[in-house]
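Table 4 source record.
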Amino acid sequence: MFLRNAWYVAAWDRELTRSLLPVVILDERIVLYRKTDGTPAALEDACPHRKLPLSMGRIKGDEIECGYHGLTFDASGRCTRIPCSDWIPKTARVRSYPVVARNGLLWAWMGPAELADPALIFPVEHWGEAGWGTNSGDALTIDANYLYVTDNLLDPSHVAWVHRGSFGDASCETVPVTVRATGGGMIASRWIRGIEVAPFYQPFVKFQGPCDRLQHYEVRYPSHAIIKAVIVPAGYAGPDAERHPDAFVMDSYNFMTPVDAERTRYYWFQMRNFAPDDPGVSDAMTRAVREIFDEDRVILKAVHAGMANKRTPNIDIAIDSAPLRFRRRLNHLIADEQRAAAAPPVTAESEPATG
């Protein structure tokens, strides 16, 4: 089940040209294209005649022409031409999806178009701000349900075992994690004090010696995360740590788009408070992060398969508190959405009398 009244990443903005780009979101096939003025558009990827994917057709101006019989659709989904016919039935249309370009990504709204509010798109702090650098890679396809990915992104402890040679080390094994709910999601976080700087961060940290390290893992509904790493000299942990002159800060943004129940598209980039204009640093961080996420991908694929084919019950442990709470709340949101969609519309006749 999916939450449909939400924005999901459909593609990188840089991917979209004047060619047709097919994607699948929440098990719905969508075709993206760029209009002549540069703005993106998104339509149901199925001609209503014989359901040939419109992505097998061609762009003509700001419209798509079906590659089977030439039915043509504008960006609103309205059919504007049926060859050999002087009549276009009202049913000759496809669904149009609201789509917005922001922070280098294309966001598609999967619920009713009238509910789409761009203000609800996941905010990115420091985007375009002086002194902050950005690095980004491609998008990963993970052969796992998206909720296993959100589980992973609400679990700071897994780095001790999955990423021991990069993000993690033995110091990450035993420090308790604090869990708290927010209005829009769940946070699992902890300060680890007086430890060695983990291998991934060593080339970029300004100081020598032991450090205090913040792991802030936050996932917001339905499936988007910010993972904040703050590293300061030992003894400076706390709410003002980011203001320390030698503070290392990396905000990792992670956007999970369910393809279907079995696969997830994972879009990601990092914001950092150092070397803003150094392409060498950006390239090094992108390569390292990609390798780390590939480690997650192997684990999550195996977890999905193991849970789908389990012969004995699985158990939950203390570190599962944040993922389980997140899942419960998301299930409530989905159930509320489905009840609202199934409710009959309110009409003047159905409204209770007053006065």
